[in-house]
Amino acid sequence: MAMEDGLAFGRRKFLEAAASMAAANAAQGQDHETNGQDRKPELFPGSILEAGGLRVGHFTDSRRPTGCTVVLFDRGAVAGVDVRGSAPGTRETDLLNPINTVQRVNAILLSGGSAFGLDAATGVMQYLEEHGQGYRVGTNVVPIVPAAILFDLNLGDGKIRPDRHSGYAACQAASDSHVPQGNVGAGAGATVGKFFGLKNAMKSGLGTASIRVGSELIVGAIVAVNAAGDVRDCRTGRILAGARKPDGRRFLNSMEQILRGETLNRGQAHSGAHTTIGIVVTNATLTKTEASKIAQMAHDGLARTINPVHTAADGDTVFAAATGTVNIRADITTIGSVGAEAMARAINNAVRSATGIPGYPSSRDLADRS
Fold it and tell me: Are 101 and 62 in contact (CB under 8 A)?
């Protein structure tokens, strides 16, 4: 796939960019402490773990920015999915259709590496099989692991991508106590603001958040944000990260440029090399039909924070799952509405917790925001 602005971002160019960034910071009198990297970002509270009955694990590749994130449901979960982008990469999503036989999933995987990253689900299946978890067919156990991927092959050596070993390692790292955010797992190679070329893009990452409603209902979300569009604050509408002007310090405002008739970078606007992928989980009890509706409504969280979204260049995919750890049958509209808000907050957390890399500054790196 032909793409401009360093799609083959090799080791030499990466090191050159690192030296250039360091020189620029020195020229501006900035040090590591004052350029935003050491300042703790303001994040929305909670994580997907608060829904209960699940663990989250990351594998982050040390060789280049890529990785995968797994959500393990120790007792299984009822799940649904909704795909809104035009360039999705998925696995085992058809079985989530309410008319199909399998009723529960054992894990859901989010991965970098484009379609190659779907191989990480094989490692998740291996781990689950070893632990006796899956759909029983006679004497066999077949783990049910839906998955979705994003494109991050433009950062570093694209031959390095998550595989079955990565998926297995993510399972081994899974925890029910803490979810690291930022440049980790499926968000390690995530970037945003790419409609006008990768040279204008910014670093994004993976985020999570949760919301409690009343005394029992909890809805949480986790998301890797690799959108072609800009990411905005879900409360104020202010751009947090997106396409930058030539000075690299101010935002272009992608939607404003489109309305003015500016020509999109053809390689980015039509490549499918983007995508935001996420999961919403509730502790309530749901059917597959209800989970599918909640996945659909959760996309509103993307629409509130990413602009443009669900484009021909994105493969936006959202899963919804119910662990049923509390015996409540909450109103579906309530769960879906709260799920959309949790997703919006998780998207903001993904951007705010990201750390800049050579050529791709983060939200915290930009002192002058529009």
Answer: no
